[in-house]
Every structure is written in C-alpha cells, then in structure tokens.
Amino acid sequence: MRLSTVAAAILVTAATASTAAAQTMHPTLYERLGGIPAITAVVDDFIGNVAADRRINRFFAHTDIAHLKFLLVQQICQGAGGPCFYPGRDMKTAHAGLGVRGRHFNALVQDLGKSLNKLKVPAREQMELVALPAPMKPDIVTR
Which conformational region is residue 34 in: left (phi greater than 0), alpha (psi within -120 to 50 degrees), or beta? Predict the structure, then answer.
C-alpha cells in the first residue's frame, strides 16, 4: 500500500514536530553548556592550563594555538550536539609519533576539569564533557 503525498507530508511534519519537542524537553549538552560562547571560554581557560602544565605542555610547543583553540571549540561543539563540524585531522593522524602515554592523556583531562570547576560548570555537564574524549583515547595514546 502506498502513502499518499498528503499522508506522507503529515507523517514527516509530525516526526519533525516530535523531534523538536523532544529537543526542547531534553536540551543537548551544547545547549546546557551555553553554546559557542561558553565552550570558547572553557577552551581558552583550558589552553592556559595546558600551557602551564609541565607534564604535557611540550606536546604543544610548536602548535598554532589560535588554530588549536578553533579546532577544540568545533570538536567540543560537535561532540556536545551543537551545530558545528570539526574540520581537523582524525586523532590517530594528529597524534602519530608524539609518544602520548596514558598519564599525558589523563593530565589533559585533569586540566579540562580545572577549567570546568573554575568556570562553575554544573557537575552533570562536567561529567558529560569530560567523557567526550574517552572514545578517542585509543587513537591518541600510542604507548
């Protein structure tokens, strides 16, 4: 049995309305964080923490910091359900040959946590945001 064009349009409209209502009832992490301005504030503070962290700052010694900040904002925005697209390299390629160990990865996550605490990001959002890099760990940590 074929749906008429009108019936199909009604189903699509209903599904779109249902999705919009669900998003309103359950805002994304991106929305709960406060969008691009809040993510940018977190990234700015986080990069300062990383620069001061002798455990890991050597990995960023020759990095274009402005470009890194842009990429991190895009990556967090996308990962948090925002409208952004991360245009950077995949994590395996970006970290190849750097010798990143688990302790370095953990230090980076700790530096992020410091920024989230400083900026008074609520606990639920902190946990969700800190969880975003976890699936990337196998591609970042090489030894």
Answer: left
Distance CA 31, CA 78 (A): 12
Query: What is the model's pTM?
Result: 0.81
Q: Do 143 and 99 touch, CB atoms closer than 8 A?
A: yes
Give the residue carrying structure tokens 């410091």.
114
Whole-number Å distance between alpha carbons of 43 and 81: 17
CA distance 28 to 123: 15
Give residue-wise pLDDT tens across range 81-132: 999 999 999 999 999 999 999 999 999 999 999 999 999 999 999 999 999 9
Closest residue by Cα to residue 77 from 124, 30, 132: 30
